[in-house]
Amino acid sequence: MTSAVTSGVAALINDRDTTKVLVTTDASGVPHAAVTDFVQCGEDGRILYFEPLESSVANRNLTASIWFDRQVSIALRTPADERFHIGARPLRALVAGPAFQRHYDAFRARFGDLDLATVWVLQPERVDDQDFEQARRRQAEDRPFFQHLDRIARHASP
Amino acid sequence: MGFAQLKDVAPGRREFNETVSGHPDFPQLIALKIDVQRRGVHYTDQALSMVDAEIHQLRSANIFGTRDAVLRPQLPDSLLLRDGTSIVVDPSPLDHDPYFVDLIDGRLFLVDAGEVLEEVDLWHKPRFYDKFTRSGIPMNLVAQARPQRINLFLSSYCHFWAKDDGGCKFCDIVNFGKQQKSIFAGKPNRPRPADIAETVREALRERGRFTTFCITGGSVLKGGELFDVEVSHYIETLQAIGENFSTRKFPSQIVASAFNERQLSRLYEETGLSSYTTDLEVLDERLFQWICPGKAEHVGYKEWRSRLIRAVDIFGRGYVNTGIVGGIELARPHGFRTEAEGLARTLDEAEFLAENGVSTIHTVWVPRPGSTFGDQTAPSLDYYIRLAKGLHALRVKYRLRVDFDDYRRCGNHPDTDLARLL
Ligand code: SF4
């Protein structure tokens, strides 16, 4: 399966200075967002989310997502203020085995004395460029009803 | 046997699909695990061609036996699903309608009636399996592994078996112990503390490999008070393990007899033990007397239950549980006549225990040839889904954790797999 993530977006995910927000939902659909440093894009275009806390809301919600086949989202904001949204689906939860142990060592080498509960393998399904200026222009052109009249009045009130 | 032949008949597949469609709120991966445990597995020759004894964990020394009375140590131990769920499962004879594990494009899949269902991983062998203690014992005969847990079996003999018909009727510990003797010839009857300490030290060298210990064995009735000798065995084992830790307590579980408060306090105070399990096996006094005659005679149902509840004062809420062999309450001829009755009675009693801080966890009953109930059949998949859901709902209602016996620290209880959502 080819990934929806281009190499450019993959590089942004792997840039430590990019802010990443992981959005998940619980079994009843209640959303949860968490800013995280623990997201990485692999060479195969899949996203890895390293969860240090077995008891975190994100870990629970990702479990619900893999069980009930639901999407999660990752929002990115780069230092240059580029913004992206990635819709993905959990494919696999690595909790044991040689691959898990390799990630365990690498994770601890990078982040110090943290545990590693799960490596979530996420399959990206869509990437949306969320450049605000572009979105604003697009709406102004395509959806002319979506504005307040005072903004286009001849004599705008001060 | 070709899959095409199976396709026309596949009642198992029909039951699975009909059952899971009736439980949209229950994870299909856990339903699949239950069903694989109910029916067992058959590894195709192609699947076995990629099993590598250097990498994969083959069937290790164990406490309870096989489903076909033949121990084949060259077969893989068990399986992992893609969500991290363990399926602790034995190979099953073909006439028991097992799931197949087959090799497709270089990867292993569960296959049923020709339908490719889910990719599976084999368990990986821990590094300590290839090492020897200074006394010359292979470490894999001192301790055994699950994907994230170290198991220690203190004995393959249960003193309830000393009397005819004293052992639990679903249990094959003694018969299986004899069978294992020829295969795992160097296995000590009870591992020595020095060998345990050394094996654990070696196991802990492998980073990210283990999260807990489970220590168990048959009941030992001897001592000044009933079970005193068994308690001493656990204490010396836990102390040997504890030599390897910088903390006083470490994640650990014993699955043992029903100890009194003095014995439990000793275990808590003198060792690093952090949780306690003693199995009622069946949550009904009348059936307990029939199915577990040794336990009934020496302790009794009500006293066993009350020892569990008293253990909560020592180990804390969420750190004491009792195991039941799910489905045994329907055993013939004295079990409940309907699944509805069996479920209602079991959940009712589990609720009483939960109110008192004790969790109930279930296994999937595998009628083993070496047990009195060897020729019986386990109940339906629907029954197990309702049982797992019911026990999980009690933990939600009474805010009971079961961290020490969950999907990762054990992996043999469908109901505690659901605790990943707690
Ligand atoms: S107490 Fe019962 S289940 Fe446990 S080992 Fe003895 S006979 Fe088997």
Automatic annotation (TrEMBL), chain A:
<protein>
    <recommendedName>
        <fullName>Pyridoxamine 5'-phosphate oxidase putative domain-containing protein</fullName>
    </recommendedName>
</protein>
<dbReference type="InterPro" id="IPR012349">
    <property type="entry name" value="Split_barrel_FMN-bd"/>
</dbReference>
TrEMBL record, chain B:
<dbReference type="InterPro" id="IPR007197">
    <property type="entry name" value="rSAM"/>
</dbReference>
<keyword id="KW-0411">Iron-sulfur</keyword>
<dbReference type="InterPro" id="IPR013785">
    <property type="entry name" value="Aldolase_TIM"/>
</dbReference>
<keyword id="KW-0949">S-adenosyl-L-methionine</keyword>
<dbReference type="GO" id="GO:0046872">
    <property type="term" value="F:metal ion binding"/>
</dbReference>
<dbReference type="GO" id="GO:0003824">
    <property type="term" value="F:catalytic activity"/>
</dbReference>
<dbReference type="InterPro" id="IPR058240">
    <property type="entry name" value="rSAM_sf"/>
</dbReference>
<dbReference type="GO" id="GO:0051536">
    <property type="term" value="F:iron-sulfur cluster binding"/>
</dbReference>
<feature type="domain" description="Radical SAM core">
    <location>
        <begin position="146"/>
        <end position="395"/>
    </location>
</feature>
<keyword id="KW-0408">Iron</keyword>
<keyword id="KW-0479">Metal-binding</keyword>
<protein>
    <submittedName>
        <fullName>Radical SAM protein</fullName>
    </submittedName>
</protein>
